[in-house]
Each structure stands twice: as C-alpha cells, then as structure tokens.
Amino acid sequence: MESRNPADTRELIATFPRSGSADVEQAVNAARQAFQLWRLVPAPIRAEQIYRFSELLGQHKEELAYLITQEMGKPLNEARGDVQEGIDCALYSAGEGRRMFGQTTPSEMPNKFAMTVRSPIGVCALITPWNFPVAIPCWKALPALVCGNTVVFKPAEDTPACATFLIQLFQKAGLPEGVINLIHGLGEEVGRELVAHPGVDLVSFTGSSQTGAEVGATCGRTHKQVCLEMGGKNAQIVMEDADLELAVEGALWGAFGTAGQRCTATSRLILHSQIKEQFTTRLVERTHKLQLGPGIDGRTEVGPLVNAAQLQRVSRYLEVARSEGAKVLIGGEIASQEELQHGYFFQPTILDQVHPDTRIAREEIFGPVVALMEVNTFEEAIQVMNDTPYGLSASIYTRDVNQAFQAMRDIEAGITYINGPTIGAEVHLPFGGVKQTGNGHREAGSAVLDVFSAWKTIYVDFSGRLQRAQIDNH
Asked: Which residues lie across from 456 on neighbouring strands?
C-alpha cells in the first residue's frame, strides 16, 4: 500500500504492507510470549525505558514533525505540537512507574490486613487514527507499557510512516522484543481481525462512533475489556458579555486548527443574539484572511484534508447544509487555486442560519466547517449545547462568574473550557466524553491507569483461625 502527501499526491511518502491474518497471528503471539517476562519487570524499570523513549522523541522532534506534515498534512507548527504531546505523555507515564499507588484500609476483622494493588491486563490492541499520528499512539502505548502490558499497535493506513518511526524509537529505547508490535493495513481487514483475536485481552480504539460501536460489540461477545474514544459535535457558546476578540480567536483555532480534523474541533458556535451580528462579522473577516496551503509552508494556517474520501465527505455535507436551508457565509467549496489542485484542500467554511434539528448541527463532519446558531438566553444556549448525541468537549465565553459555574455544572461533556477554545487538552488530565463519544473510560492523566491495569484486592489473615466476614463480626 502507498502513503502519499495529501497536500500534493504526486509525492510518495512510503510504501507499507497490507497485512493479513498471518501478521495478526504473529504479532499477537509475540506479544503474549513477551508479556510473561515484561509483567515481571518492576514498574520503575519499565518507566526508565519510557523515559529513554521520551529523550529520543525530543532528539528527533523536528524530523518526526516534518514527517507528520508530509504524511497527514497539518501545518508544521501543529506537527511539532503533536510530537511534544507525545514527549509530555512519555514523561508523565515514566513518572507513574513510581506512583501506581494502591490503597491500604482497615479490615473489619481483627488480625487481618487488606490492600489493593494494580496488575497488568495482558495483550493490548491499540487502534489509532491519523489526525494525531504521534500523540494518540503515545497516549495509549505508554501507559499500557508502564502498567506491564504488551502491545499490538495498528495505526491508521493514512499514517504508516509515522507509526514505523515511533516503533523504531521504541526499539532504540531498549524495549525487549515482542513488547510492542506493529501491523499495518485496513481497519476492515486486520483491524477487525485484531479486535476479534482470542489472544487479545484489551482493545483501545480511537475513531468514529459507528466503528467504535462495532468494536464494542465484538469485545462484548469475546469478553475483552474495551476503551472507546469516539466522535464529537463540540460547541462554543459566546454570551453577550464575552470578550469578543478573544472568542473569535478561540473560534478560529477551534474550528479550523488541523483543518477541523480533531475530535474536539469546534463545529458549532452558539451565539447570543445581542452579539451575533458583530461576532459573525469579525469571524468572517478573520476567516477570509486564513492562509490555505501545504503544511510545510510556514505561512500556512489551514492544511489539506487527509485523503480523497474525506474531501468528498466534507463536500457532501455542504450539499446537505444547503438543502437544509443553511446560508454559506464564506467557503463551502473544494479549493480552486491552481497551486492546490494536486492536494485535498477545502475552503474554511462558515454556515449561518443552522437549526439545532438539522443533520449539519448534529453529525460530525471532521473538516473545516463551523455552524452558527443563535440563542436569546443562557438557558437556551445550554439546551442547544447539550442537544447532540455526543459529549466530548465544550466551551463558553463569558465574564459572568455565576454563569461560568452554572455552565461547568450543566454542560454535558467530558471536557469543558471557560474562555478558551474546545481544543487544547493537557496530558496530565483525563480525556474523554459522555454519550456516543465514549464508553466511560478516560485516556491521559492518572485515570488512564484504570484502563490499562486491573485492581487486585488482597487480604492477609494472620489470626491463625477461620474468620467469616459479615458472619463472625455481627
């Protein structure tokens, strides 16, 4: 299979194997064999190898960022941030090697000791998307490894070169053979087979809600643990008392950063009627000035979409928007500039007069498209915000501290920003959402340890006699 530059498809980045059943079997078997030794390596020693990996990421940051830009298209400064997030995650995970605390608690019986410890789960299948080809694999692999699990890593077929680079760095960091394994190929082929493989104990998946539902169903039938991080239809509320310039900056970054190809991207702007006209005018003016082009160009602010299918998907959604009565204020078309004809470029797009019941207001587009929705009160803004099948990220701009705290309480989302855009997660805090965004687990922060480790409760009875809890004690 081929990986080509989405900014100029004439440029071949890499060729990679279309893996099949034999590759899945080999990778899972290698991981199962390695698990028996890796789980016995003390967690602080495992953490030292993660720390060495963080140093290697830092040494190769510029090289890897350039490869990200070539392979999936995001501007180079964003690609550097992608790698930095991987570095931050490695440093945090390395620290957790000495912090995987359990609990000790008094027993209800005399001469009896009670405690909890964390145990590794086994072989973890990690299925990752293309939009953060370094950060998201690091979010999954590093805590999995430091907890004592082994890994089979299946990256998106759009970013195989980035995945291969990461595996090479893991090898240089000194991970034993079989601890982390890489397979390439299509999700509907090797991805599906990996999820169903009886030698896999846990699946961690990031992608669409539709595919995530299939992954979850398979794991349910095969009794695997599963962590799902899926879609979003994130909104930014702008109240009448907001700092409008700050809110416009947040909307631009949230809607058009990574060409809107983030699960946390701002796809809805819920605007109070008192400021809607002024805010919209400023937003359109600023959007008009955005530089569309190859990510490798330092002037570029919005890069290409990742592939032809994604370009056509966004284009079809604009047809849906027009049929539903939305008004295109700017953009709305595949880029027509001659210098962009060999790439997958879509114009940054603002839609007005969008009703909450329409498809364009409820379905994830995953492109540089944002919908404007007008409200008259704070209560209406919260109602519109929550009226979505998803619940990943949310934002509100207001100077009213009372409204800010009400929003923190009432917004149905796993992540909530006050006077900031819907994107910008930090690795030491939990990441994930509610409703169709996930299945209750969280990535990043200390919460991720609950994904990649199992609680074991231990009782030590040193009384020298049979003690029957709840019977002898009452």
From this structure: 117
Query: What is the identity of the amino acid at 463?
Result: S
| Catalytic annotation, pick one of 78, 96, 157, 229 | 229
Least Cα distance to 235 among 262, 270, 259, 260 occurs for 270
The 10s digit of each residue's pLDDT in 371-402 is: 999 999 999 999 999 999 999 999 999 999 99
Of the residues 193, 219, 263, 443, only one is catalytic, namely 263
pLDDT of 105 above 90: yes
Active site residue 263: yes
CATH number (domain holding residue 158): 3.40.605.10
Q: Is residue 263 part of a domain?
A: yes
CA 38 to chain centre: 27
- Is the entire prediction scored with pTM above 0.85? yes
124 as an active site residue: the answer is no
159 and 241, same domain (yes or no): no
Instruction: Pick left, alpha or beta for residue 470 (phi over 0 → left; psi -120 to 50 → alpha; otherwise beta).
Output: left
pLDDT digits (tens, 9 = 90+) for 223-245: 999 999 999 999 999 999 999 99
Kindly tell me the burial class for residue 314, based on how many C-beta atoms sit within 10 Å of its own C-beta (0-12, 13-18, 19 or more). buried
Q: Is the pLDDT of residue 474 over 80?
A: no
pLDDT tens by residue, 110-159: 999 999 999 999 999 999 999 999 999 999 999 999 999 999 999 999 99
Q: Is 244 exposed, middle or buried (0-12, 13-18, 19+ CB in 10 A)?
A: middle
Confidence of residue 88 (pLDDT cuts 50, 70, 90): very high
> Is pLDDT of 473 > 80?
no
Name the residue range of residue 274's domain: 234-418
Whether 43 and 128 map to the same domain: the answer is yes
Q: What is the mean pLDDT of residues 4-24?
A: 97
What's the domain count of the chain? Answer: 2
DSSP string, 73-90: ---HHHHHHHHHHHHHHH
> Which SS3 state, helix, strand or coil, does residue 71 take?
helix
Examine the domain organization and report whether 159 and 196 are in the same domain. yes
**What CA–CA distances, in Å, run from 459 to 39, 112, 171, 450, 464?**
22, 7, 39, 21, 14
